Amino acid sequence: MAWFRRQPAQPEPHAAPAPSAEAARAPLHGQAERLLRRLEWTVLKRLDGLLMGDYRTLMRGAGLDLADLREYQLHDDVRHIDWNVTARLQVPHVRVYTEDREMSAWFLLDLSPSVDFGSGPQSKRDLSAGFVAVLARLLTQRGNRVGALLYGAGVDRVVPARTGRQHVLHLLHSIQKNLHPTALADRAQGNTTRLADLLSAGVHSIRRRSTVFVVSDFISEPGWEQPLAQLAQRHEVVAVRLIDPLEQHLPDLGLITLRDAETGEHLLVDTHDAAFRHRFAAVAAQREEALHSALARAGVDALELSTADDLAEAVMRFAELRRQRTRTGGGHTQSGMPLHLRPWARSRDNGASAS
Known about the structure:
Blueprint: H1 21-47, H2 55-58, E1 64-71, H3 83-89, E2 93-99, E3 104-110, H4 124-140, E4 145-151, E5 155-162, H5 165-177, H6 181-187, H7 195-205, E6 211-216, H8 225-234, E7 236-243, E8 255-259, E9 266-270, H9 274-298, E10 301-306, H10 311-327, H11 342-354
């Protein structure tokens, strides 16, 4: 059966009202509501009960009360060393804190054109929005505050840290709005991504000690390593890397045209050539190694999210990452041990093994 829709009567030219700003924003608010509601049913319901009791293992609060002093151990955070006690006892001691429940989390979101890529039904942008929505909702349910810095052609928007479901909707709306009017016009200029600008903005904007998620595919001009290390000196930083399987291994698709999402440059390649596919995989592996080394030098934890991943499983991987970090006393990737304390630690360990 065919259905026909009656065409509305055409109004007079002078009678056509100009669309209001609220009417223009309504579709975006509806999209944000539908996305969050879908994630609440498909992801958050599956996680319900799996993360119970893991509050203190997932995040670290900003308010700390001194609880005890103990001798320095390997992988302790060097920022907790009490230098007065260390000077008196001639043995490094660290402060043990009781953590406050309330914390602040910030999302530094790379929304540059390269995250629009996706070889399957889900793009890296969709994956980023879903991860932010789920994690922000998990945090705000417990009274924590979340904020965001959005990077498109530049640092386009700052969403202040607040709590509540309405704020999560506002955050999702801001992410979706970044695809519209001005963002699309700026992209047409062919500007390349400068992730250093986003990280530097985070260094100067986030005053209170927080947990910071840098959500990006890290396809950027060089120079972002130093701002990332500066951010990690004050905050607990997690690099959430967005990847797509097609970026690692190129299948045999014959003769295809590839387009650079940021510069608009087109390149004709023959993927049937096995030698070309081998070179592509080698370059991708080399970039992977360089990126992992840069993140380790910056002292940040890394979580990889693939467009082929299940979002609930990805959040559980993040929870396990935080548990491992807590079991090791802050993780080996954050601050490490100062150079002047390493000989003392080696001699202590050697003495313990000899005994």
